[in-house]
Amino acid sequence: MMFGGPGGVGMGRGRGFSRRVGEVEPGQRPPVRKILGRFWPFMRPYRWAILIGMTTMVLTVGLGKVPPLLGRWLVDEVLTPVLSHPLTPESLARARNGVWLYLLGSLGIGGLTTLFGFLRTYLLHKAGQSMIHDIRVRLYEHLQRLSLSFFENRPSGDLLSRVTGDVDQVEQLITSASDSLLAEILNLVLTLGILLY
């Protein structure tokens, strides 16, 4: 994705995006490192919010795997030993305590998952919206500095597409796609780890 051609809707070298996302031929994809390098000036003011948001994402995904482990503990360590022997007051008390621990643990995990999920959504979306705001402001400032001849030689629809459509795609990437992708990858890794364990 490019923000204009030579003299186009760039953002100035050394401050965020340059005129191109990468020095590549048309039709080629710029290196990911160059793209991230041009995003970094916009991410830097919100790096702590992003870091905390990603941490809560890891905690949310991890906590989501705890209830099955609690269920396995309840069956293997509490119910199976109790039911495999004649029932006694002591064994029934042990089973009752185990069930209560399971219920309390499940409620606690559910509460923490909800809390971390809220923090994750709030922090990452707030950081993403703030970054998009900064990008739009930088684009607007750059457009104000361009000569009239630039606008005469460029279709207005092309400019609108780059200023609105391209930035909207960046917004979707920052606020939802990247977070969901990382969460699904971590979820898959943890699930495989639990199954193999």
CATH class: Mainly Alpha
SS-based class: mainly alpha
- β-strand percent reads under 5%
Number of E-state strands? 0
Rg measurement, Å: 26 Å
The CATH topology: ABC transporter transmembrane region fold
CATH superfamily: ABC transporter type 1, transmembrane domain
Query: Main beta sheet, described?
Result: none
What level of helicity do the residues show? over 70%
What is the element string, with H for helices and E for strands?
HHHHHH
- What ranges have pLDDT less than 50 throughout 5 or more consecutive residues? 1-24
Give the total of domains. 1
Overall residue-averaged pLDDT value: 79
- The shape is rod-shaped
Counted by DSSP, the helix tally is 6
Q: Compute the separation of the termini in Å.
A: 43 Å
CATH second-level architecture:
Up-down Bundle
Explain what you see.
The chain is 76% helix and 0% strand. With 197 residues, it is mostly helical. It is built from six helices and no strands. Helix 2 (47-63) runs antiparallel to helix 4, helix 2 runs parallel beside helix 6 and helix 4 packs antiparallel against helix 6.
Task: Set down the secondary structure blueprint.
Layout: H1 32-43, H2 47-63, H3 66-83, H4 89-145, H5 148-152, H6 156-196
What is the compact description of this entry?
76% of the residues lie in helices and 0% in strands.
